[in-house]
Amino acid sequence: MSKQAICLKIPKLQGQKTLVLTTRLRLVDRELEIEENGSYLNIPLANQPSPGDFETLKKEGINFEVSTQLFKQRKKKPSLPELLESELPISLMASLPHAADFIGEIAIIEIPPELEPHEKIIGKAFLRVHKNVRTVLAKAGAVSGAYRLREFTVIAGEPSTETVHKESGCLFKVDVAKAYFSPRLSNEHNRIAALVREGETVVDLFAGVGPFAILIAKTHESVKVYAVDANPYAVDYMKTNIRLNRVMNKVHTQLGDARQITNEKLSGVADRVIMNLPEKAIEFVDVACQALKSSGGVIHFYTFVDVSSSIENKKRDFKEAVEKSGRKIEEFLSFRVVRETAPYEWQAVVDAQIR
Questions:
Q1: Strand, helix or coil for residue 220
Q2: 327 contact partners, CB below 8 Å, separation of at least 6
Q3: 3.90.25.10, 3.30.460.10, 3.40.50.150, 3.40.50.300: CATH of 178-354
Q4: Which end of the chain has fewer surrounding CB within 10 Å, N or C?
Q5: Is 166 within 8 Å of 154 (Cβ atoms)?
Q6: CB 20: neighbour CB atoms within 10 A?
Q7: How do residues 312-350 score in pLDDT, each as one tens digit?
Q8: pTM of the predicted model as reported, rounded to 2 decimal places
């Protein structure tokens, strides 16, 4: 179908600049397709530009002509409720999942109990909505066990739990049923990498498939990262990811218990220690302190907070654990919530300078 609209004709070379500007001015009609015409672009507008809009375009050096013409309407991507409204009882529509974790070409969704008899239908519809997804997994249990794993059910697409995930210019191969990985920690991976200084030695005590360690190595010239994990599958994938991201000389994997590895190999080597094991990190604070150089360093301590355990309580517990190890907290650098993990529960991180 086509629709007549006001047309802003501009040179193609000014396309990106003009689109940013007209979007900011709320002029672009998002329901219509932008058209190419030789060396020009025809941008459909939702409203007649005001004299002030014209003045803004001229001040930015945009060469334009205004006319009216027919534009093709954009193909609207169907939503999950739209695809399922004829497939499910209306009483169940409000229970449809509103969010998903996307890891590579895998989507992970949570199916409430009342929708479990319809999970295959929901999975197929999810594939139609998200064309870049090849497998839809439904959570079949909570994260549990020493390796922080979750059981999944394949409800649509290819019966595989292995994929390659792209994040911040890095590639991470992972089997989500065999090794822990959360795309919701992307901002945290970037934040920690930005805090690391050139020349530092970093110990990542619970490294998983390497998202912290590899991004740190990828974004710094002269760092050394010791990446420890007890899960042999995670360490195998981490070794693959080290090769994929070409950081072989910077990231050194260690398979085994964090306490034993630190006692045997990593005592007193670190300027910075990452402790992303919020369920049990408090039990390894002495290990992190042991890994730090005698002159001290920074610990990133991850934990869970909820309505019954305040931020101040967690800081107090961490401080007591540091002091039991014979160290002192010189300064709390920050305390921040990383993400929501359940209703009224959040993952949080304490950054502390230790001496």
A1: coil
A2: 289, 292, 296, 354, 355
A3: 3.40.50.150
A4: N
A5: no
A6: 11
A7: 889 999 999 999 999 999 999 999 999 988 888 899 999
A8: 0.78
